Amino acid sequence: MTGGASDLYEPLNQYKAIARNIGIVDGPFEYLTTAGMKLPLPFTTRMTVVRLANSELVLHSPIAFDAALAQSLQAIGTVRHLVSPNQFHYAHIGEWSRAFPDAIAWASPHARQRARSRGIDVLFHRDLGLEPPEEWRGQIDQTAVPGGIFGEIVFFHKDSKTLILADTIINIELDKMTQPWRFAVRLTGMYYPRGQIFFGMRLPLLLQKRKTRAAAQKVLSWQPERIVLSHGRWVEANATATLQRLFGWAL
Ligand SMILES: [Fe+2]
Questions:
Q1: Number of CB atoms found within 10 A of residue 47's CB
Q2: 3-state DSSP: the chain helix, strand, coil percent, rounded to 5?
Q3: In a 3-state reduction of DSSP, which class is residue 181?
Q4: Percent of the chain with pLDDT over 70
Q5: Ligand 1 centroid to residue 137 C-alpha, Å
């Protein structure tokens, strides 16, 4: 079902700089194991790598561990922070932790319970909150976007003016999908070029208007120029216009 290799965001498993001290790594199709069956999901994921001033690397939403990728990252800095921004993007943190035992695994709210309940082998060391921890304060800011179980801690890399998201905004390119997924994604509106807030977050956002407003105000106050996201095409320019379109109602 994966079609030709050109359907993905080649090159895969390679660090691609998008600005100074920040880059992305596009991964292959993800798999979901249900009732012992390994099923391909209809999308790929992307991780973001930030290099801090002390040369430590933050891996946001790590993709599946790959030895060659790990080696190439070590040439850039020290793999130190493994960040799960929401309850869904943590599955590969355990693999990276085993390869980099000195790395700190950061849990988003409720990620620990979710991993435990699903028998995922991951040990979190620290918890993410509304404020950036000392380790990256001043270089990366963060806040919480409410969304029920889909709630996400979102990040802003100050130097490059990059908003770093996982699922909050989805911007799938329909021509990279096969049917029936293409049809299903079209129904949700979460496709390029006018990506959308992940549909699972929309009702919780409406129901938590006060928290949503606070999050929207904070994200817009950062004045991001670009938005990296995990699924679909990332937003290379005019990020503020995209955010106004998607979150303006909450201000
Ligand atoms: Fe996701």
A1: 26
A2: 30, 30, 40
A3: helix
A4: 96
A5: 25
Q: Which residues surround ligand 1, an ion (CB under 5 A)?
A: 167
Q: What is the pTM of this model?
A: 0.95
Give me the amino acid identity at 98: R
Compute CA 118 distance to the chain's CA centroid, rounded to the nearest angstrom: 20
CA of 231 to the centre of ligand 1 (A): 7
Q: Rounding to the nearest 10 degrees, give the CA dihedral for residues 156, 161, 164, 169.
A: 110
d(CA 198, ligand 1 centre) in Å: 9
Q: How far is the CA of 89 from the centre of ligand 1 (A)?
A: 6
- pLDDT tens for residues 58-113? 999 999 999 999 999 999 999 999 999 999 999 999 999 999 999 999 999 999 99
What is the rounded CA–CA span in Å between residue 46 and residue 48? Answer: 7
Ligand 1 centroid–CA 97 distance in Å is 20
Pairing relation of β-strands 126-127 and 162-164?
Answer: unpaired
pLDDT of residue 6: 46
Name the residue type at position 22. Answer: I
CA of 88 relative to ligand 1 center, distance in Å:
6
Structure tokens at 219: 């994200």
131 CB-contact burial (10 Å; exposed 0-12 / middle 13-18 / buried 19+): exposed
Order across the sheet with 104-107: list the strands.
15-19, 22-34, 37-51, 56-60, 78-83, 104-107, 126-127
Q: What's the rounded Cα separation, in Å, for the pair 81 and 76?
A: 14
Residue 33: band (very low, low, confident or very high) from pLDDT cuts 50, 70, 90: low
Q: How far, rounded to the nearest angstrom, does the alpha carbon of residue 225 sit from its chain's CA centroid?
A: 17
Ligand 1 centroid distance, CA of 243 (Å): 19
